[in-house]
Amino acid sequence: MAADVKVRYSDADLAMFKAIIVEKMEKAQKDLELLQSAYKNDGNNGTDDTSPTFKAFEEGSETMSKEANTQLAIRQEKFVRDLKNALLRIENKTYGICRVTGKLINPERLKLVPHATLSIEAKNMQS
């Protein structure tokens, strides 16, 4: 039996996946910047002269929005980091190989979730 050759995606396939990832990363980076500016913004809408009840309500809403934006930003930062790691795997030519089974991840899955490191088979084993 021939030596066990590790199967990988062709350079052409890797270039296609790289284009998808770069496009998603640019959008993700813009979204992250918007989220960061939203939660770093002091949000003072000039309600100082309105009734105390309305001001208290708005401050509560503002706090909730900042917390929600912070959570979204954290998730977005992780997404950007995952995409950067996927680009590293493309450079190393290990992209698209399931880290559990060692088999190629379905290309349709990679087009939808380009930072995936698990095949559906491996993901189902975790459940």
Question: What characteristics describe this protein?
Answer:
127 residues; mainly alpha; 4 helices; 0% strand; elongated; disordered N terminus; DnaK_N
Instruction: Give the number of DSSP strands.
Output: 0
Main pleated-sheet profile = none
Number of helices: 4
Order of helices and strands: HHHH
| Average of pLDDT | 84
Query: How far apart are the first and last residues' alpha carbons, in Å?
Result: 35 Å
The dominant shape is elongated
Oligomer: single chain
How much beta, percentage-wise?
A: under 5%
**Helical/strand content category:** mainly alpha
The poorly predicted ranges are 1-5
Radius of gyration: 22 Å
Helicity, in percent?
55-70%
Keywords: Coiled coil, Metal-binding, Zinc, Zinc-finger
Pfam family, one: zf-dskA_traR
InterPro entries: DnaK_N, Znf_DskA_TraR
Protein name: TraR/DksA family transcriptional regulator
